[in-house]
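Quarterly update from the structural biology core.
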Amino acid sequence: MLNTEENLKHDVYEIFPTVIYRGQVKCHREFKEKYLLELLEYWHFAEDLPRQELKSPENSGRYFLHHNENYSDFFQCLDDNVRQYLKVLSVKEEKLNTYVTKSWLNIHQEDLPDIKVHTHNCSDISFCYYLNTNTSSDALCFHQAENNNEVSEFMFQTNSEKYRLIDKYNKYNCNNYTVTPIEGTVVLFPSSMMHSTLQTVQRYGQRVSICGDITLTLKEDYLKCEYSRVDPSLWTKINKEN
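Predicted structure, tokenized:
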């Protein structure tokens, strides 16, 4: 007797998923109350950077917020989340040091364009901490250049209802995924991931975030490990200054 469609058995193996981590920033309320206005003033009203030129913070040279000792509580909360993220990946985080290499303020409001698709190619983990958001804040959008499930070329493309082949988007056939900006949380992801922002509704107010990059190195007790990189304290600069 042939099986009917209702009682056919099958298995699905979900392999090679990419992890996007979101965690709470425990010091958020106090940090926002103390430093939001200070951060806005630093970014908006700096004499050497007129407001109209502040459309690309990553290219401004102002990406060393982690050097400010006043913000150390936030960066400690960030480290706690990095270690939870690594535990999700079953990585022995206690063998690794965490370095923030860049951190900057990102402000998005009515008059600024979306952030285009890009990657951060000089770090291991990138982060976005939502310091101030509202229901109109742009989503964080992740992209993949190639979907291995698209077994026939252009099978997952969106065309008109009449000609498209997919019934609806799901985690197997999508090439883009959006994360809602929730105030007081930090999102961590591989720096090699393509990402952007996406405006979904008419904006009002400001979305303020602290974004940046993290590099992982081996602690001194684990230098015999052949993976990861040694700590910068063991590096030697060999080029001479001009």
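Residues 35 and 71 are 8 Å apart (CA to CA).
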